[in-house]
Structures are given as structure tokens and as C-alpha cells.
Amino acid sequence: MSLSTFLMLLVALVLVQASCSQQEDEPCDDAGSREQDVPFLEVYRSSFCQPFLMTVDVYSEYPDEVSYIYKPACVAVQRCGGCCGDKGQFCAPVEMEMVTIELVKISPSIKESTMVKRDFLAHKQCECRPVSIS
Length: 134
What we know:
Layout: H1 3-22, H2 40-46, E1 50-57, H3 58-61, E2 69-71, E3 74-81, E4 89-107, E5 112-130
Antiparallel strand pairs: 1-3, 2-4, 4-5
GO molecular function: chemoattractant activity; growth factor activity; vascular endothelial growth factor receptor binding
Domain Platelet-derived growth factor (PDGF) family profile: 36-133
Pfam families: PDGF
């Protein structure tokens, strides 16, 4: 962590603690925040570029199978997201794996349903990379 980032965090924590001490009717916890508030460091850490559980549309992953109905139509897989702290960078996967998910595939034309397994790409590790200008 750079010195400037550390100083910004320190100033933010002091401001949070000061605002809590001014609120006499709402006691602060040890982290310096009111009970219903999410602590700054938790928000800050969870906003970094990292894998998050995201909903992926089955048809966007399998566009050739739009004549079928899948249940569920969306599945949850780990995908990269979050902030990089620089507008010249984006959050990208560096390690991925295939995850097999069981779905119900319905064929409306013959009114039949079967259990099928479909592979989805899951992101295991992410990093900030420069945005390429084209």
C-alpha cells in the first residue's frame, strides 16, 4: 500500500470516528461506525478487483440453444469485478476454470425435459490491467 493511500485511509477513519462521536443518540462500535453502517475498511476491501459471485444468463453462454428453455435461465458463477483505482485500468481474469452446472433443458416442440450438464467459465483470480486504446 502506498503512503498516499495509507494517509487517505487514515484521514477517512479519523473522519468516521469524529462523525460518530458527534452522534450521541447512536453509539459507535469498536470500528467507529454506527451499528447499521458498513465500516469503511470493509467497503474499501470489497471494492477491489476480485472474483465475485455473479449471475450469468445461460443463453449468452450458449446462444445456439435458444430454441430450448433452461431452468434456471441464469446461473451464479465467479466472475471478475470491482475497481482498479485508475481509469486507465480494468479488472481482468488471470486464472480461470470450467465449472459444470446441472440444469433442466426443456424442448417446447416435443414437450420434453431432461437434466443436462453445461460448462461455464469461472474466474479464480483477477488483476488490474491497462486499457488498450484501439
